[in-house]
Amino acid sequence: MMSFIRIPRTLTHNISQSLKPYSSFNLRSSQTLAKQPNSSDFVAPVCNLLAQGANWDTLTSKFPSIQLTETLVEKVLLNLKEPMNAKKALTFFHWSSQDQNFRHGLRSYCIVIHILVHAGLLTDAQALLESCIKKNLASEHSRISVAETILSTYGLALPGPRVFDLLVQTYSKMRTVELAFDACCYLSDHGFCSSLISFNSMLRVAQRSDKNDFAWKVYEYMIERRVYPNQRTVEIMVDVMCKEGSLRTMTDVLSRIRRKNCGPGVIVNLRLALRIFQEGRIEEGVMLLKRLLQKKLILDDVMNSLVIYGYCEMGKLELAYEFYDSMVKRGFSSNAFVHTSFIGAYCKDGRIEKAMRLMEEMESIGLKPYDKTYNFLMGGCSRVGRLDDSLKLHERMLKKGFILDCSACSEIAGKLSEAGEVEKASELLTVLIDKGFVPNEEIYSKLMDGYGKIRKAQEILKIYYEMEHRGLTIGPLVQTSLIRNLCECGDLKEAEKFVNIIKEKSMTLNSCMFDAMIKGCCRKGEIKKALAFYDEMIQKELQPCANTFMILIRSMFEVGNVKCIKMC
Where are the PPR repeats (predicted)? Predict the structure, then answer.
């Protein structure tokens, strides 16, 4: 028989206490073995190994199961931030990226980039920036998150502003010029303005990518930040002007301000100022001109002329004349550009007599009117109904070798058509086309309206087929005018044919087209067809105008279709 030995209670208590550390051991004990050491167990040994020239294999053999974290990696990198250790920091960064359970965040990237830039290892830094940017583009982070992180880590490593220029230039190199500009603006707002080289890199990419408007936006911002162009900048912007077709125009404008030749830099800045004024940002334009004048990047008489032009564009004639008078007292001589600016302002204001007298004065002092002068006057005369004066000016204009612009031509064609003299408008257009003028949709639309008014459907169709023959785009404006005026002429069959053509091309009928077809059908007594168009219009969630609705109701009353009236 087995006998039991009684173990003293004190002994059992001591045994249980000694076994307690092992009581929680289970299948997850392998994770405990791989427990992350504290920073003192890892940072110093890693830095020492790297100082001894350790490679990836050495690091892996010494630390086979280390659990890397952002904090741990950051501490190692910051311990290696001195320029002499920059290569070691890069080695550690690449080694740690091989860990399948660890991914570098933006912060790690930016810290090592700071270290590399400060050590002058720009090629390595740019390679990491490109990688960082690509990863950011593929994620849902903010467009400027790289710039934000670069800025937030600026004080951790040995700081140097060159890193911000490298960021902007890297964006440009990757042809993401909009992101480059966003980063540039963000950094400037926080006290780090990009260098001229960085601005030139953005301008060059914008120019090569045919982003002309964007190039002017960058150039304007550059001037605002008091970064002034060099020869390279001017060359790029001249290329932009060539691409957008404004170089010849600006050269002509400059020749009307001053007879002497100017350098390309003046032409570029003239174009910038005119763009700002034409966008209605007059005060900004004046400030920019003053800044350019201080740096001798624009000439005094050019600046004065542009300021007057800006005030005229705003319709502030009193301010324009005050400025003009003050300039004259300081020896400023008027020019054709300034006179034309005043003439344009008077024409917009409807003060045609004053504008005409100013043109006479202009000629009397030896200044020659040019195409813009005539266009202003002809458009102004047309708007106030002085059509004979407009046509006389046109004859004078042709003799001088100038042709109308689309805006003035549209104004004259429209007024002649409204007055029932569409034939004169057509003759004028024929003369212009023979001289190389290309009419726009608005001009053709107004001619159609003119022929619709005198009920000449065949002439309307001729205009349409002429546009087709010339390969011009026929958009909703002309399509609407065509259908409306054919209906006005009673040629419902042709109008319906073009409606079907529009549908076949999967284009959308607008409410004006439906209105025209409904009214045209009602006039012809084709009430069923009118109702079919009405139903289609409602299905497309379009509403007929009040006049169309009343014509439809009246027509149904006349044929006694009370049931359909209730449905409407």
Answer: 195-229, 300-334, 335-369, 370-404, 440-474, 510-544
pTM, two decimals, is 0.78
Structural domain contains residue 274: yes
Give 476's DSSP letter. H
Regarding whether 262 and 216 lie in a shared domain, the answer is yes
227 in Cβ contact with 198 (< 8 Å): no
What pLDDT was estimated at residue 356?
94
38-48 pLDDT, tens per residue? 545 667 776 66
How many domains does the chain contain in total?
5
| Residue 282 forms part of a structural domain | yes
Side chain identity, residue 18: S
Residue 560's pLDDT is 61
Final residue before a domain boundary, out of 507, 535, 555: 507
For residues 147 and 189, membership in a common domain is answered with: yes
Same domain, 190 and 205: no
pLDDT at residue 314 in the model? 87
**Residues 210, 294 within the same domain:** yes
For residue 14, being part of any structural domain is answered with: no
Q: Position of tokens 């902007």?
A: 168
Cα separation, 50 vs 89, in Å, equals 9
* Residue 146: closest CA among 200, 98, 107: 107
Q: Are residues 241 and 190 in the same domain?
A: no
Same domain for 184 and 120: yes
Q: How many other C-beta atoms lie within 10 A of the C-beta of residue 6?
A: 5
Q: What is the dihedral of CA 272, 276, 279, 284, to 10 degrees?
A: 170
Q: How much is the pLDDT for 140?
A: 67
* 358, 463: one domain: no
Does any domain span residue 4?
Answer: no
What is the rounded CA–CA span in Å between residue 523 and residue 488? 9
DSSP state of 102: -
pLDDT at 56: 60
Question: What are the structure tokens assigned to 338, written together?
Answer: 């300034």
Cα–Cα distances in angstroms (integers) from residue 380 to residues 256, 313, 555, in the given order: 22, 15, 43
Please report, rounded to a whole number, the percentage of residues in the chain having pLDDT higher than 90.
62
How far is the first Cα of the chain from the last one, in angstroms, to the nearest whole number? 111
**Whether 300 contacts 331, CB under 8 Å:** no
Helix axes 352-364, 371-383, angle to 10 degrees: 160
What's the pLDDT score for residue 1? 39
| Number of Cα atoms under 13 Å in the Cβ half of residue 188 | 20
Last residue of a domain, one of 147, 179, 194: 194
Three-class SS of 410-463: HHHHHHHHHCCCHHHHHHHHHHHHHCCCCCCHHHHHHHHHHHHHCCCHHHHHHH
Q: What was the pLDDT predicted at 202?
A: 98
Q: Is there a single domain that holds both residue 485 and residue 518?
A: no
| DSSP 8-state secondary structure symbol assigned to residue 158 | S
One DSSP character per residue, 233-247 reads HHHHHHHHHHHHT-H
Residue segments in the chain with a per-residue pLDDT below the cut of 50: 1-37, 39, 563, 566
Q: What is the residue range of 296's domain? A: 195-332
Burial grade of 162 (CB within 10 A; 0-12, 13-18, 19 or more): middle
